[in-house]
Amino acid sequence: MTAKAPITQDVMTLPRKLPQEGKVNLVAMTRDQMREALIAMGTTERQAKMRVGQIWQWIYQWGVRDFAEMTNLSKAYRADLDAAFVIEIPEMVSRQVSEDGTRKYLVRIAGGHEVEVVYIPEEGRGTLCVSSQVGCTLTCSFCHTGTQKLVRNLTAGEIVGQIMMARDDLGEWPKPGEPKDETRLLSNIVLMGMGEPLYNFANVRDAMKIAMDGEGISLSRRRITLSTSGVVPEIARTAREIGCLLAVSFHATTDEVRDKLVPINKRWNIETLLDALREYPKASNSERITFEYVMLEGVNDSDEDARRLVKLIEGIPAKINLIPFNEWPGAPYKRSSNNRIHAFADIIYKAGYASPIRTPRGEDIMAACGQLKSASERERKSRRQIEAESGLG
Ligand code: SAH
Ligand code: SF4
């Protein structure tokens, strides 16, 4: 196992401040939490449920941050809300726009920490790549985020707040009273930013519940994909409690190589991971599991690897997403050649699996997969530490 044991911090999102100390943030409260908060403020039990629905719509469908604009509530009620609560999302510190239209945001969260969020526009859709932790406890040897120590888990508010911030920037909130626009700039979410989402399960779940809620952000669960490095005990729970699509950072076809690339493999090896995926109750032909596979020259990219991969995943409704390695300063690997990637893809395709090659997006602004890292974070793992932890040294 790695020198540092992964933590399973599973803290419910609670209001950051107590009402008597100051105002409580309503963003990302679950429906039950908000109901209780409204009752504590004096709303009758009979009315509380309806008020939650109304306030959710204002916050998540219309993007309203000021209670005064919630015109279907009485003036007196709006004033009570304003005295007790705020609607607050993380602050955007900077935005870089790539030549290909990809936008990378640097977002500041409580405590002065920073995370990166990436928006990728595509034909007919747009995907937001959301972060779940500042840094990561894991140390995948090809990943830039893995060189940054875990600073903390994001709260549910900070996770759903990334989506709201992007909609602010895209100017995507409909005007109250106008019909909702069905063609969305931000139509899909991938939990593929910084951090391991399954080591921050409760907060990720609560945030995604709001993203999927018809009175919330209102995205279909099929438009949300959670990527995990393979936290096996949380995989079944993901299907049960979130119900989104699943992607797995697979990256190798033998335990020997995967131990080095994705060190969590030393705790849950390939066979254990595949068993969990075979049982993923949501998997079906229409909801296949995505196997992410980073192409590293001379490490995991041979024809033999491709054939082994096909054999390993037999029986699992799957597609294989080949990711050309994105380089970062000091990275110990090289990207496989285009010819190699295509030869690898071909073997998988001929075995009957979709094998799209992910086009790197936003490379000029370091926004591509695995390049994210908070530039301002001082606490870095040393090169030697990474090599020791990954067994590369
Ligand atoms: N922690 C989660 C989600 C974030 S990483 C996970 O590991 O699945 C999102 C994807 O980018 C993962 O498949 C990850 O393995 C991949 N990735 C990380 N570093 C990369 C790099 N330098 N080049 C290409 N892909 C990378
Ligand atoms: Fe963490 Fe995922 Fe990067 Fe591995 S690939 S270090 S789990 S963010």
Structural write-up:
The structure is a single chain. The protein has 393 residues and is of the alpha/beta class. The chain folds into two domains: 24-86, DNA polymerase, domain 1 (Orthogonal Bundle), CATH 1.10.150; 91-390, Aldolase class I (TIM Barrel, Alpha-Beta Barrel). The protein has eleven helices and 13 strands. The chain has a nine-stranded mixed β-sheet with strand order 3-4-5-6-9-10-11-12-13, with helices on one face. Strands 1-2 form a two-stranded parallel sheet. It has a two-stranded antiparallel ribbon with strand order 7-8. The structure holds S-adenosyl-L-homocysteine (SAH) and iron/sulfur cluster (SF4).
Instruction: Summarize the main sheet.
Output: 9 strands, mixed
Biggest sheet strand order reads: 3-4-5-6-9-10-11-12-13
Sum up the overall morphology in one term.
Answer: elongated
Name of the top-level CATH class of the largest domain: Alpha Beta
Structural class: alpha/beta
> What would the CATH topology of the largest domain be?
TIM Barrel
Distance between the termini: 15 Å
Report the β-strand fraction as a percent range: 15-25%
Number of separate domains: 2
Average pLDDT confidence is 87
Helix content: 25-40%
Spatial extent as radius of gyration: 22 Å
Number of separate strands: 13
The helix/strand series, from N terminus to C terminus, equals EHHHEEEEEEEHEHEHEHHEHEHH
Look at the structure and name the CATH superfamily of the largest domain: Aldolase class I
Low-confidence stretches: 1-20, 376-384, 389-393
What's the architecture of the largest domain in CATH terms? Answer: Alpha-Beta Barrel
In DSSP terms (H or I, runs of 4 or more residues), the helix count works out at 11
- List the ligand species: S-adenosyl-L-homocysteine, iron/sulfur cluster
